Structure formats: C-alpha cells, structure tokens
Amino acid sequence: MNHGPAERRVAFLGPEGTFTEEALLANPPGDGPHPFPYPTIKDVLHAVRDGEATVGVVPIENSLEGSVAVTLDLLAFDFGDLAIVREVTHPIRHQLIARGPLELARVTKVISHPHAYGQCRTFLDERLPGVEHEAANSTAEAVRTVSRVDRPWAAIGTRLAADMYECAVIADDIEDSVENRTRFVFMAREPAAQDLDATYKTSIVCGIDQDEPGSLLLILSEFAYRHLNLTKVESRPSKVALGHYIFFIDFEGRVADGPVAQTLKCLACKLPWLKVLGSYPT
Amino acid sequence: MNHGPAERRVAFLGPEGTFTEEALLANPPGDGPHPFPYPTIKDVLHAVRDGEATVGVVPIENSLEGSVAVTLDLLAFDFGDLAIVREVTHPIRHQLIARGPLELARVTKVISHPHAYGQCRTFLDERLPGVEHEAANSTAEAVRTVSRVDRPWAAIGTRLAADMYECAVIADDIEDSVENRTRFVFMAREPAAQDLDATYKTSIVCGIDQDEPGSLLLILSEFAYRHLNLTKVESRPSKVALGHYIFFIDFEGRVADGPVAQTLKCLACKLPWLKVLGSYPT
C-alpha cells in the first residue's frame, strides 16, 4: 500500500481492514485521500494535530456498545483544538471468513475479537455449536491468521479484510442485530465549512460550576427556548473532582445559524467551561 | 468449587477470576452467597429471573470505557421485571502475572483481553517495549494460559485470578489510570428494602412521545423543581424507530421519599413509558 504524501493522508484507527477503514472507504473525503492506520485513537488525533494527516477518522458511538468514552474524553480534555468536520454512520456487518471455500460443518475453530464474537452469538450457537473460540486483537488480525494457516478455521471480520487477505466469505452478515452500527467522526485542525444547503449537527461539551439540582436544566432550557432539537445528551465524570460531571450535547443546526450562535453565547456566559467540538454536515 | 444450592446462588458475569467476581467478593451480599459464573450478561439476568440465583451481578459503567450499553438495554427492554438492589464501584487494578517469579526483561509474550492491554499501554510501552501481544477472551483466560505453559509469558489479569491459578504477580497495578473503576449493579426479583438510615440512589429509564425540542427539559424540570440531584443522564436510541430516544436518569433519593414519589408520579402522567430500574443504597 502506498500511503502517499502527508498532506493528503487520512489517519484512521487501525489496523487495516477493520470497520473504521471500511467506513472511511465507503465515505471518502473528496480529495483522493491516502488512508493510513494508527494503533490507537490518541495516535490518530496526534497525527492530525501534528500535521502528519489532514483528517483523522475515529469511532465515537456504537448503537449496541454505547459511546466510545476514550474518544469523548480525548476530544473534551486533550484535543479541544481539533474540530469534528463530518460524521458518518456505518453498519457493522460481520462475515464468517475462511482461507477458501469451507463448509460450516467442517469448521473446527472460530477466531475473532471478543466484541465481534459477542455480537454473533446467535449464529455461532445455532450453526457452530461447541466450536472452539480463539481471541484476536482485532477482526483484521483474525482474518490474517486464518489466511496464513491451512486449517479448517474461520474468522469473524469485515468484507474489506476478506478481500484484503484474499479469503472467502463462507457465511454473510452473521451479526445478531441488524441495528448494529457505529458513528465515526472525521477530525481536522480547522472547522468544517458552513455550507448553507446541507443539514448540520453541532457537538459541544460543557462543565458546570457545582453539581446542584437544576444545573443541566439551566443548560437545556437555552436549547428549548430556541427550539433546537437535541440528538444526544450524556453526562461523564469530569476527572476534576469526584461527583462533578461534564455534559456532551449534540443538537441539530450549525454554529452560523442565529439561534445556535445565541444559545452558545448565553451558555458561555452561564458556564465556567464550554467547547464546541464541531459543527458538521450529516 | 461448590456452587451450593440455587437459593443462595449469586450469579455473576464470568468466567471466574475476572473483575466482576472480584467486585462481588469485595462486597459480598450478607447471607453467605455462593458465586456462580454465567457466560453473558443476559445469562446472569435470566438466572435471576428464573430463580436459579437470588442475586445477579453485572457491570453497568466503567469510568474509562463508558456505560455498558448491553446492560442498559437489557434492563430497559428485556428485564424490566428485575430491580437494581445495590451498586458497588470497584477499582480496576491490572496485575502482570506469570507462572512463577520472572524478571520483566525475560518476558517474551504478554497475553490479555484487548481492553486490558489498551488500559496498560504506558507500562507496556516503557517496560516491555516490542514484546509480542496475544489476545485472550478474558483476563482470567489469559492467566489460566500462562499458568499451564512453562514459558516466559505473562498475563494481564486480576489479583484474584493470580491467586486462583497459583501464579505470581510480577508487576503490581500496571494500569495507566488510577481513575479506572467499574460500577456494578446487583439485580434481584424484588426491590431493595428502603432502609431510612442509608443513602439511596434511584435509576429510571423513560421514553418520550416525540423527539421535539424541550422534551428532556420537561422531564428534568420535575427533578429540579423538587431539588433532586441528578447523577447521570444518558440518551440512547429507542430501538422503536430511528431518531427516537430513551433516557437513563440516576438521581439521589429513594422512591419512598415524598419528593421522589411525587416526581415519578408526575413523570408517569406526562410520559408514555417510564420504568423504575431500582432504588438502592450506595
């Protein structure tokens, strides 16, 4: 793979062949990007900040597993200088993958990341009962392993990894829930352009002075007053002191809109700490 | 291990030797329980519902990884008949474990669950740079593996697992963050007794008719009006229709308190759907 020059590099949470790369390839940035894997979410964000990459793609929320708290905390505390410039929601479809054509009845071992295994339990219980399970560090690692060994083993992984390692998909879409999808955010050093034709969402994080009854109400009333629709509210421990919280809030609209600008201005007056994580097309 | 009679069995998310069992043993229910491992969170809850166990212990939130969405959704949608009767917060301390005494410089492989590995990255990068990493399905499985092989391998796991498999802890508390802790809930068929001397928390989940601006405000105003302090607010997709949300709310107080009872009564009038997940001592 030619990773290309840094000025067109798109950093993503690796390794290659996992869902983050699948989401990126299904939704490529416009300028002919060169995907480049980094081992952790923090490494992806550092690559963007340091100019190694123009954009970085990281998971922020899975419909079954919930928010990726590591990403939320990094954006709130460590990478407040970066901006979310886009979000994409990508369906999580697990494939059963072998080195070549292989009947299910002949499979003697299933290799996968523990999360992927947990998300395919119905299929595994019904179609591969009692078959040994071996853990891997990623779905891509699992596929690579089966591609290299001439044994009747199968991996749970992405269609992308199956192609990448020239393997066969021996059972399609084996996940328990068709609702399984992950929201990824594209991070950059500069905020997204505010295109008036597109639908936007804005993400903020804010802290409150004291955890007193009504503090969240104070925040939300600013949105309600201006008829702004919230799409997510989540409290997280603030890390500053036990019992203190910060709030992640997503809402419809763009920072260039009058009501959004007013809301943010009023909140900035009321609250000790507020960051706009990004205002981006959806 | 003698798992004892079902009427005193405490179900927990297994396998044996993981953090859920550690949390349970550090906070045993009063009646001399017999811990019994189940393979999934759903299996633990089924065991409680079916009377195989009197209490079930499952993780609900980790300070670094966020909410355990699987647990939230099961409590909201599938096991609304069970009640949270207690919560405990247990520190997540990772140990580097070998079959016997072993110098760090001699370790050739580290085996662990991918999450545990990700939570010890600083130690691993500094003290064991370049050492091969092999995935396991659980920290307990990793410890069992190193206990059985006469090789210079180390596992990342709990102190409980080290004891259980008669292994040596060769490096203590190797986690990156001392803030790493998990909140576990104890589930039962009957609600907790309302002891007037203890401090209580109450957890509810509720749905709204339509996702219109101000719907969450409507809910929170009932708490603010009665000076009830919220300790958690989290929106989740409702699973009923795209774009619809449900809200998980934790607050201080017990259902037997007048203001709490009034709040719940008013919310039940306003909302199409509300469940009290439990009112329990903290």
Summarize the entry for a quick read.
The structure is a homodimer of 282-residue chains. The first copy, chain A, has 282 residues and is of the alpha/beta class.
Please characterize this protein's 3D structure.
2 copies of one chain form a homodimer. Chain A has 282 residues and is of the alpha/beta class. The first copy, chain A, folds into 3 domains: 7-90 and 180-188, Periplasmic binding protein-like II (D-Maltodextrin-Binding Protein, domain 2); 95-171, 3-Layer(aba) Sandwich (D-Maltodextrin-Binding Protein, domain 2), CATH 3.40.190; 200-281, 2-Layer Sandwich (Alpha-Beta Plaits). Helices cover 28% and strands 32% of the residues of chain A. Chain A has helices at 19-26, 41-49, 69-78, 114-118, 121-127, 139-148, 159-164, 215-225, 258-270; strands at residues 9-13, 34-38, 55-62, 66-67, 83-91, 95-98, 109-112, 132-135, 153-157, 168-171, 181-188, 200-207, 230-237, 245-252, 273-281. In chain A, the strands form 3 sheets. In chain A, strands 1, 2, 3, 4, 5 and 11 form a 6-stranded mixed sheet that branches. A 5-stranded mixed sheet of chain A has the order 8-7-9-6-10. The first copy, chain A, has a 4-stranded antiparallel sheet with strand order 13-14-12-15, covered by helices on one side. In chain A, β13 (230-237) and β14 form a beta hairpin. In chain A, 45% of the residues are buried. The model of chain A has no long low-confidence stretch (mean pLDDT 90).
